[in-house]
C-alpha cells in the first residue's frame, strides 16, 4: 500500500530588537465617538454574567507572539462560565448586521498575524475558563475532559497522575486546547497519531449565534468536523474530550547530521514508514553556523566525543534529523532495536548525539528555550513565521530553490522540516493539506512554481488567496460559515469574512455574497 507523505516546513526569521519598528507593523485604535462608546459599554455592562468585562486595561489584547499586528478591542471579556460566552455572542448577534462589533477568542496569545485580535470588537480571554476541574476517565478508551482555555502543559501534568497522556502534541505546550484544535496541533508525533484534531472524542462549542452544542462524530458531526481546524470561524471551543494513551517515563532524544538533503529525507521517510520504532520525528536545517556542536554538548552527549570534536561545520548547509523513543526503564529490548536501526542511517556517523531525559522534560523542551530568550529580551521581538505543508513530490525542488539559492547565509530563526503520513489524518476536518500521502513545510516560492503547497496557520490578504487555499473545500467552508456564524461575528482576525453584512441562506448565494464583502 502506498504511503501518502507530506513534509512540514517551518521557517522562522527572528528580527533583532533594533529593527523591529518597521512598516509591516499594523497599529489600529478604536475610533468610536464618545456617545457610541458609552452606549456600547452600557449595553455590555447590562448583561447578567458571572465573569466581567474590562474596558480600560485592554492593550495586551492587541498583541500576540508574532508581534507584527496590533488592533485594539473595545473590551475584554473574562468569562467564568460557558454561559458568559454564549450570552455575549447572543447579545452581539441580536444587535444585527448594523453593529460593527466582532468577537475573537484569545488563548495564550500565540497567534502570528493578529488572528486572535478583534479591532473595535470584544476579545474573550479563554484562560479565564480554566477554573473548572479537569476530569480524567480511564478504561478501554481513556480520555480527559477539559476546558477549551486549558493549557496543554497542565493537561500533561494532570493526566500523568493517572499514568496517561495525550497521544499528539505541539512543540510548545503553553498553548490552549481551543487554540490548537482550531488549527490542527502538529508536532513530531503526527506521523503516527495524526494531529491533535484527530485525537478528540467530543467538543462543546458556542456558535456565532450564541448557541451551545455538544458535538462529536455521531452528534452534530457537521459542526464537529467544521470546528476542528476551522480557524475559529464557526464556533468557540469551550470544552473537549481528548484521547489518551499510557504514558512512558523517559525519552531517548537523538540528533544526527546529514550533508545532503536527499539522504536526510530518505531516512526520515524510512523511519515514519516503520511500525513501533521511534515515537517522534522532526528535523531542521542549519545554514552556515559555527559552534552549534559545542552548544549541543550542554544537553546531548556525543556517541564518540573524539570524532565529534573533529567535525567542522563552517560555511556548510547541514540537515539535522531529530528523533525520540519513549521508554520505561525495563524496555531494554526496545532500546537495543532502536540502536540497531540508527546504525543503518545514512548520516554523518561522527555527529551522533543523544540524551536521556524525562518524558515531561522532552515534551516541554521549547519552554526552556523560551526562558532563555526572555532573559535576553528576545522573546517579545517580531516573529515573521511561515508554516507550509509541502507535497513529497515537490520537496526536492523546494530544497534546491530555498536552501540552495534563497537562504544561503546564516538564518536567525529555526527552519524545521519533517514528513507526516496523511493516511493517519482525518480528511473530514476543515484542515487543508496537499493532495498527497506525504508532505513537508515552505515559502512564497511555492505559489509561484505550482508545487501544490498549503499553508499551515494560513494567512492571506485576498479572497483569491483564501479560495485557492481551500480549493474544493471552499463551498463547504462557506456553507458552514453561513450556518453557524451568519453575521461573521467570530474570529475577524483571520480576515476571511467581513462583519456587518448578513449572509444568505443557501451555500450558492453565500459564496457569491462573500466575494462581494471580503476584506
TrEMBL record:
PROSITE patterns: FAD_PCMH, OX2_COVAL_FAD. SUPFAM superfamilies: FAD-binding/transporter-associated domain-like (SSF56176), FAD-linked oxidases, C-terminal domain (SSF55103). Residues 69-247 form the FAD-binding PCMH-type domain. Its EC number is 1.5.99.12. GO terms for biological process: cytokinin metabolic process. It comes from the Eukaryota. Residues 1-16 form the signal peptide. It holds the Pfam family FAD_binding_4. The keyword Oxidoreductase applies. GO terms for molecular function: cytokinin dehydrogenase activity; FAD binding. Its cofactor is FAD. PANTHER family: CYTOKININ DEHYDROGENASE (PTHR13878:SF120), GULONOLACTONE OXIDASE (PTHR13878). This is cytokinin dehydrogenase. It comes from Nepenthes gracilis (Slender pitcher plant).
Amino acid at each position: 500500500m502506498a504511503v501518502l507523505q507530506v513534509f512540514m516546513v517551518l521557517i522562522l526569521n527572528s528580527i533583532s530588537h533594533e529593527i523591529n519598528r518597521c512598516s509591516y507593523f499594523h497599529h489600529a485604535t478604536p475610533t468610536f465617538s464618545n456617545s457610541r462608546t458609552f452606549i456600547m459599554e452600557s449595553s455590555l455592562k447590562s448583561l447578567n454574567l458571572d465573569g466581567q468585562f474590562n474596558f480600560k486595561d485592554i492593550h495586551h489584547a492587541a498583541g500576540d507572539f508574532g508581534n507584527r499586528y496590533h488592533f485594539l478591542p473595545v473590551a475584554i471579556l473574562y468569562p467564568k462560565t460557558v454561559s458568559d460566552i454564549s450570552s455575549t455572542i447572543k447579545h452581539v448577534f441580536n444587535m444585527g448586521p448594523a453593529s460593527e462589533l466582532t468577537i475573537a477568542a484569545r488563548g495564550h496569545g500565540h497567534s502570528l498575524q493578529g488572528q486572535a485580535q478583534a479591532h473595535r470588537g470584544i476579545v474573550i480571554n479563554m484562560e479565564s475558563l480554566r477554573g473548572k476541574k479537569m476530569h480524567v476517565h480511564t478504561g478501554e478508551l481513556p480520555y480527559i475532559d477539559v476546558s477549551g482555555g486549558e493549557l496543554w502543559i497542565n493537561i500533561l501534568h494532570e493526566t500523568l497522575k493517572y499514568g496517561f497522556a495525550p497521544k499528539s502534541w505541539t512543540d510548545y505546550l503553553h498553548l490552549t486546547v481551543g487554540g490548537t484544535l482550531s488549527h490542527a496541533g502538529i508536532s513530531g508525533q503526527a506521523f503516527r497519531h495524526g494531529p491533535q484534531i484527530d485525537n478528540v472524542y467530543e467538543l462543546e462549542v458556542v456558535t456565532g449565534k450564541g448557541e451551545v452544542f455538544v458535538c462529536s462524530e455521531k452528534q452534530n458531526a457537521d459542526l464537529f468536523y467544521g470546528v476542528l481546524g476551522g480557524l475559529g470561524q464557526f464556533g468557540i471551543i469551550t470544552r473537549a474530550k481528548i484521547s489518551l494513551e499510557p504514558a512512558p517515563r523517559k525519552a531517548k532524544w537523538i540528533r544526527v547530521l546529514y550533508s545532503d538533503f536527499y539522504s536526510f529525507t530518505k531516512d526520515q521517510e524510512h523511519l515514519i514508514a516503520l511500525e513501533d520504532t521511534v515515537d517522534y520525528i522532526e528535523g531542521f536545517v542549519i545554514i552556515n553556523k559555527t559552534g552549534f556542536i559545542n552548544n549541543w554538548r550542554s544537553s546531548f552527549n556525543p556517541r564518540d566525543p573524539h570524532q565529534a570534536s573533529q567535525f567542522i561545520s563552517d560555511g556548510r548547509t547541514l540537515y539535522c534529523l531529530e528523533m525520540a523513543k519513549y521508554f520505561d526503564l525495563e524496555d531494554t529490548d526496545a532500546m537495543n532495536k532502536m540502536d540497531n536501526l540508527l546504525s543503518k542511517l545514512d548520516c554523518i556517523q561522527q555527529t551522533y548525539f543523544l540524551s536521556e531525559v524525562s518524558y515531561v522534560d522532552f515534551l516541554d523542551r521549547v519552554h526552556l528555550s523560551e526562558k532563555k530568550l526572555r532573559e535576553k529580551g528576545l522573546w517579545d521581538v517580531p516573529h515573521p513565521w511561515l508554516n507550509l505543508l509541502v507535497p513529497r513530490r515537490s520537496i526536492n525542488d523546494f530544497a534546491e530553490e530555498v536552501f540552495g539559492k534563497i537562504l544561503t547565509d546564516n538564518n536567525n530563526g529555526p527552519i524545521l522540516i519533517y514528513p507526516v503520513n496523511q493516511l493517519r489524518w482525518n480528511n473530514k476536518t476543515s484542515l487543508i493539506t496537499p493532495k498527497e500521502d506525504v508532505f513537508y513545510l515552505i515559502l512564497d516560492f511555492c505559489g509561484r512554481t505550482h508545487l501544490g503547497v498549503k499553508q499551515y496557520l494560513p494567512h492571506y490578504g485576498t479572497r483569491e488567496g483564501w479560495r485557492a487555499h481551500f480549493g474544493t473545500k471552499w463551498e463547504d467552508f462557506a456553507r458552514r460559515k453561513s450556518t453557524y456564524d451568519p453575521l461573521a461575528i467570530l474570529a475577524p482576525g483571520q480576515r476571511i469574512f467581513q462583519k456587518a453584512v448578513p449572509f444568505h441562506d443557501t451555500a450558492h448565494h453565500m459564496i457569491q455574497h462573500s466575494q462581494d464583502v471580503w476584506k
